[in-house]
């Protein structure tokens, strides 16, 4: 197994800048809209990571043409008529591909053998029961409600579907995306995350692709798009950018990430507002948001509900040891069902660092302290690896187990750290 020794980062008087890949959350949503929609779309996206490659490989297996072009991808949409309706697909570890493709194919119809990585097989796919209730036939090749399975569908023609957002807002997004390129539906949302940031992202994106939607409380009605746009711009990945923006607070320095702006579709902009609350000054420049932490002398702990930007819970947990008071993160019970049990990963690794912390069903409590040298267990989870590297950039005594797990969303992350700390 590979290991990466994180070197201490010395703050500079200049501005730290780093190129991050395209947002896989936006790009994989856009790929569904482009691939199943009507027309040819050029997606301007720059670099992208393994989750998007998994999606593209699946599109190839379905016979949907795509090609690389200058600074992005060209997709020839199938207008809801999948060329290969008897395909075998491997979504690997890409949760967006697993959920969005499964729903889109259920709407389109056909017979599909859906396989995945071993890690993905451990993650429940509750959306499958929603599809079964809508008439889709699923033969599970392993545990019920999990990959792998064979799905046979004649299309979904129900006008009303219901999804529990507490399980995953990606299920709601999958249905909204599929409806935007197929047929009208009314989606009824239940649970505590009915207005979650990722649902808002999806709604804004399907609108860009020509679909119309209305909302009445927790019910969203979607009317499909007649034709896809010729071009679409995909933002830089704000989730990945946040690890660098965190350094503005941690090391009292200036950080700017290109192609990240205040008008972003991505909900993780809320993390930058947390930094602002701790004294980091934010300004939107033509190149990207500039975070300036030079006037921060110290910062208190965080007391925050991170339900709508939970990808950054690990980032806040990595900052917490260096605060002047305790941290309490709530609203993140759903991250136990992601690439790993992320709440357990937070507490386990903090305890390895000698930092007192306590698991809660829906969150975590962290007491500040001086981290000791430790090996960080990543649980093959890219967010664990990147978040806890921040501790190493502060102390220089941290080793990351299995850093290659970052290929999922940010393949060059540790190459960038090498460059910054050389």
TrEMBL record:
<feature type="binding site">
    <location>
        <position position="408"/>
    </location>
    <ligand>
        <name>phosphoenolpyruvate</name>
    </ligand>
</feature>
<feature type="binding site">
    <location>
        <position position="383"/>
    </location>
    <ligand>
        <name>phosphoenolpyruvate</name>
    </ligand>
</feature>
<comment type="similarity">
    <text>Belongs to the EPSP synthase family.</text>
</comment>
<dbReference type="InterPro" id="IPR001986">
    <property type="entry name" value="Enolpyruvate_Tfrase_dom"/>
</dbReference>
<dbReference type="InterPro" id="IPR006264">
    <property type="entry name" value="EPSP_synthase"/>
</dbReference>
<feature type="binding site">
    <location>
        <position position="25"/>
    </location>
    <ligand>
        <name>3-phosphoshikimate</name>
    </ligand>
</feature>
<feature type="binding site">
    <location>
        <position position="123"/>
    </location>
    <ligand>
        <name>phosphoenolpyruvate</name>
    </ligand>
</feature>
<protein>
    <recommendedName>
        <fullName>3-phosphoshikimate 1-carboxyvinyltransferase</fullName>
        <ecNumber>2.5.1.19</ecNumber>
    </recommendedName>
</protein>
<feature type="binding site">
    <location>
        <position position="95"/>
    </location>
    <ligand>
        <name>phosphoenolpyruvate</name>
    </ligand>
</feature>
<dbReference type="InterPro" id="IPR036968">
    <property type="entry name" value="Enolpyruvate_Tfrase_sf"/>
</dbReference>
<dbReference type="GO" id="GO:0009073">
    <property type="term" value="P:aromatic amino acid family biosynthetic process"/>
</dbReference>
<feature type="binding site">
    <location>
        <position position="311"/>
    </location>
    <ligand>
        <name>3-phosphoshikimate</name>
    </ligand>
</feature>
<keyword id="KW-0057">Aromatic amino acid biosynthesis</keyword>
<keyword id="KW-0963">Cytoplasm</keyword>
<dbReference type="Pfam" id="PF00275">
    <property type="entry name" value="EPSP_synthase"/>
</dbReference>
<dbReference type="GO" id="GO:0008652">
    <property type="term" value="P:amino acid biosynthetic process"/>
</dbReference>
<feature type="binding site">
    <location>
        <position position="170"/>
    </location>
    <ligand>
        <name>phosphoenolpyruvate</name>
    </ligand>
</feature>
<keyword id="KW-0808">Transferase</keyword>
<comment type="pathway">
    <text>Metabolic intermediate biosynthesis; chorismate biosynthesis; chorismate from D-erythrose 4-phosphate and phosphoenolpyruvate: step 6/7.</text>
</comment>
<comment type="subunit">
    <text>Monomer.</text>
</comment>
<feature type="binding site">
    <location>
        <position position="29"/>
    </location>
    <ligand>
        <name>3-phosphoshikimate</name>
    </ligand>
</feature>
<feature type="binding site">
    <location>
        <position position="342"/>
    </location>
    <ligand>
        <name>phosphoenolpyruvate</name>
    </ligand>
</feature>
<feature type="binding site">
    <location>
        <position position="338"/>
    </location>
    <ligand>
        <name>3-phosphoshikimate</name>
    </ligand>
</feature>
<dbReference type="GO" id="GO:0005737">
    <property type="term" value="C:cytoplasm"/>
</dbReference>
<feature type="active site" description="Proton acceptor">
    <location>
        <position position="311"/>
    </location>
</feature>
<keyword id="KW-0028">Amino-acid biosynthesis</keyword>
<feature type="binding site">
    <location>
        <position position="169"/>
    </location>
    <ligand>
        <name>3-phosphoshikimate</name>
    </ligand>
</feature>
<feature type="binding site">
    <location>
        <position position="168"/>
    </location>
    <ligand>
        <name>3-phosphoshikimate</name>
    </ligand>
</feature>
<feature type="binding site">
    <location>
        <position position="170"/>
    </location>
    <ligand>
        <name>3-phosphoshikimate</name>
    </ligand>
</feature>
<feature type="binding site">
    <location>
        <position position="24"/>
    </location>
    <ligand>
        <name>phosphoenolpyruvate</name>
    </ligand>
</feature>
<dbReference type="GO" id="GO:0003866">
    <property type="term" value="F:3-phosphoshikimate 1-carboxyvinyltransferase activity"/>
</dbReference>
<comment type="function">
    <text>Catalyzes the transfer of the enolpyruvyl moiety of phosphoenolpyruvate (PEP) to the 5-hydroxyl of shikimate-3-phosphate (S3P) to produce enolpyruvyl shikimate-3-phosphate and inorganic phosphate.</text>
</comment>
<dbReference type="GO" id="GO:0009423">
    <property type="term" value="P:chorismate biosynthetic process"/>
</dbReference>
<dbReference type="InterPro" id="IPR013792">
    <property type="entry name" value="RNA3'P_cycl/enolpyr_Trfase_a/b"/>
</dbReference>
<feature type="binding site">
    <location>
        <position position="24"/>
    </location>
    <ligand>
        <name>3-phosphoshikimate</name>
    </ligand>
</feature>
<feature type="domain" description="Enolpyruvate transferase">
    <location>
        <begin position="13"/>
        <end position="417"/>
    </location>
</feature>
